[in-house]
Amino acid sequence: MNKFKYIRVLNNKEIRYLSKEYKDNLYIVFLHGFMSSIEGEKPQAILKFAKKNKLGFLALEYSGHGKSSGKFTKGNITQWSKEVETVIKKIVKKNKFILVGSSMGAWLSLNQFKYFKDQIKGFLGIGSAPEFLQNLMWKKFSKKNEENRLISDWEVDKNKKIILMPGRLTAWKGQETFIEALNLVNKELGYDSFNAVILGSDQGRDIYTKKIKRLAEQYRLTSQLKFIEHCKNMPLAYKISDIVISASVEPEAFGRVAVEAQSMEKPIIASDIGGSNETIVDNITGFLFQSGNAEALSKKIVEALQLDESRLKSIGIEGRKNIIKKFNVEKMCFSTYSEYKKLLN
Hints:
It is a single chain. The chain is an alpha/beta fold. The protein folds into two domains: 5-126, Alpha/Beta hydrolase fold, catalytic domain (Rossmann fold), CATH 3.40.50.1820; 150-338, Rossmann fold (3-Layer(aba) Sandwich), CATH 3.40.50.2000. Helices cover 42% and strands 18% of the residues. It has helices at residues 41-52, 77-91, 104-116, 143-154, 175-189, 206-218, 234-240, 256-263, 276-279, 294-305, 309-327, 329-344; strands at residues 5-8, 14-20, 27-31, 56-60, 97-102, 120-126, 161-166, 194-199, 225-228, 243-246, 268-271, 286-289. It has a six-stranded mixed beta sheet, with helices on both faces. It has a six-stranded parallel beta sheet with strand order 9-8-7-10-11-12, with helices on both faces. Helix 1 (41-52) links the parallel strand 3 (27-31) and strand 4. Helix 2 (77-91) packs across helix 3 and helix 5 (175-189) packs across helix 10. It is elongated and about 90 Å long.
């Protein structure tokens, strides 16, 4: 019976591997494919061949694959190639070896020539896939895969409600009020009722960033509240969220977050100042709270968290209708044209 072993590599990851070691013999190093493992037929057949011919053998699972540690979504070709290099150095050592790469394993095999050109005696590719172009793979991933990947990148629990506060990090955007409100929500509902994300860059205002992070630590929110600097796919960020917050303490002329959230069918909780008073229909497409009042915001968050899914969905649908009615391109252009016409007349 083949015995799997574990070895520690970069960043203390545990990599599972299978080997048959010979001190001075030629080795066969098998590298499996994308999202595969070393429990399949190919590594077992090659191991059998190696034993029969008294050859050394090594097969390993990259981080996030099989039973190796780490998250698959945190890995990449560069990282996995480096893990392969590290394990080869520890197990094969100075012995010569032949690489056998299956699918993506062929890509990782080719990368090993940078490190072991004097030790590699041959290379065999099985269904070789030495590159993953975006139009060959990523476009085939379902939208659900994209959602799960973003949830994993943000390290939030998809089984809990996600509260999103987007916007650049600056005092007048109200991140402090939001953090204070989250503390009050925890006091009422406990520490397992939600995940929260503050999404935005400080654009060089690192003193303010440090201030609000210290505030989060003070309220023991570090496991619930994530600070994310950038997100290239904002529609996806809204989509994976359950509630969106706009907590500005100074009036915004328009307030894009409130409009974007409604257009994505997400309940919005916003300050009762500036543009939000016009873009949100209170208690129908979202909720308004007294600007700068953490207690008032916490009550609205608690209310939203306790709504059932059908009510949340209903608010989202009404929000979408509201935005389409008020802010479609033709209507906005006509309104602008009408105002200019009034001025000219």
